[in-house]
Specification:
Blueprint lengths: L2 E6 L20 E6 L29 H6 L15 E4 L2 H8 L7 H10 L4 E8 L9 E8 L3 H18 L4 E4 L8 E5 L2 E2 L2 E12 L2 E10 L6 H15 L4
Antiparallel strand pairs: 1-2, 3-4, 4-5, 5-10, 6-7, 7-9, 8-9, 9-10
Helix pairs in contact: 2-3
Length: about 240
C-alpha cells in the first residue's frame, strides 16, 4: 500500500522546499510517495521470542499540554490564518517534521536531540491569509531538553547546520535582549522564484523555540514583528532549567 508523506514549507536544514512560490492563491507543498511491495511469509519453523532484562534509559516525557500553553497567540503576527498544534513526543517525530524526507542530516539531528535529553515538543503551522502581500507560512515549534545548556547547544548546532547546508544568501540578525539567539534572513531562489525566509531560534530555560516565516520576495516578511515576538516569548518563559 503506498504511503504518502506530506511536507510543508522549508525543511530546517536545507531550505530546499519553499511554500507559496507558485500561484498566489496556492500554498505549494511537496508530496513524496513511497511505494513498496508487501509479501506474505508463512513461517516453516517455530519463532523464538527472546526477552531481555537489560534496563532501558529514556528521558522523562515533557508535559505537552504545558508546552502548548507556551505557544504564542494565533494572531501574534498579522496576515496568518489559524493553525492546529501537532504533538511531537519523540526526537524522531520532531526531526521528521522539520527535515525533508531523505535529508542526510536526519540521523545526526535525531542523535543530537536524543543525547541532549529530548523530552517532547509541539509544532504549529499557520498558512498565510494573503500570500501575495504577506506571509505564506509561519512555523513555530517548542521542544524541551534535559537542561538549559542542552537547549542552547542545540540552538547553536542547528544554526551551524543550516548555514553549512544551504547555498542561498544568508544575513545574520540580532534579537534585541536575547544575545544567545540565532536569527537569520535567507533569500533562496527555487525554480526561478525568489523568496524570503526568516529563521529564529533561542533557548528559554530548557525549552528550545524555533520560529520560521516564509514569504515571496515582493511580499511583507514582518521581520520586526517576528523578532519582537521572540523577545516577548523569551521574557515570558526564560525561567526554567
Amino acid at each position: 500500500m503506498p504511503r504518502i508523506v506530506r511536507l510543508i514549507a522549508v525543511p530546517l536544514a536545507a531550505c530546499a522546499l519553499l511554500a507559496g512560490c507558485g500561484d498566489e492563491n496556492v500554498v505549494q507543498v511537496t508530496v513524496t510517495v513511497r511505494t513498496g511491495t508487501t509479501t506474505a511469509v508463512t513461517p516453516t519453523a517455530p519463532v523464538t521470542t527472546v526477552t531481555t532484562t537489560a534496563p532501558v534509559t529514556t528521558a522523562p516525557a515533557a508535559d505537552l499540554a504545558d508546552l502548548r500553553l507556551r505557544l504564542p497567540a494565533q494572531d501574534s503576527i498579522p496576515s496568518l490564518n489559524s493553525g492546529s498544534v501537532e504533538q511531537k513526543p519523540t526526537a524522531q517525530s520532531m526531526v521528521d517534521a522539520l527535515y525533508s524526507v531523505g535529508d542526510p542530516n536526519i540521523s545526526a539531528a535525531v542523535s543530537r536531540l536524543t543525547a541532549g535529553g529530548y523530552e517532547g515538543g509541539v509544532l504549529r503551522d499557520q498558512r498565510g491569509a494573503n500570500p501575495a502581500r504577506g506571509l505564506t507560512l509561519m512555523r513555530i515549534y517548542i521542544f524541551r531538553m534535559r537542561d538549559r545548556a542542552a537547549a542552547q547547544a542545540e540552538v547553536d548546532a542547528a544554526a551551524a547546520e543550516l548555514k553549512a547546508t544551504t547555498s542561498a544568501p544568508i544575513r545574520d540578525l540580532q534579537v534585541p535582549s536575547v544575545p544567545t539567539a540565532k536569527a537569520m534572513r535567507i533569500s533562496p531562489t527555487v525554480g526561478g522564484q525568489r523568496a524570503e525566509v526568516l529563521y529564529v531560534s533561542f533557548a528559554a530555560g530548557r525549552d528550545l523555540y524555533g520560529i520560521q516565516v516564509f514569504s515571496r520576495a515582493d511580499a511583507k516578511l514582518y521581520q520586526p514583528e517576528v523578532l519582537e515576538l521572540a523577545e516577548s516569548l523569551h521574557r515570558a518563559w526564560n525561567t526554567t532549567g
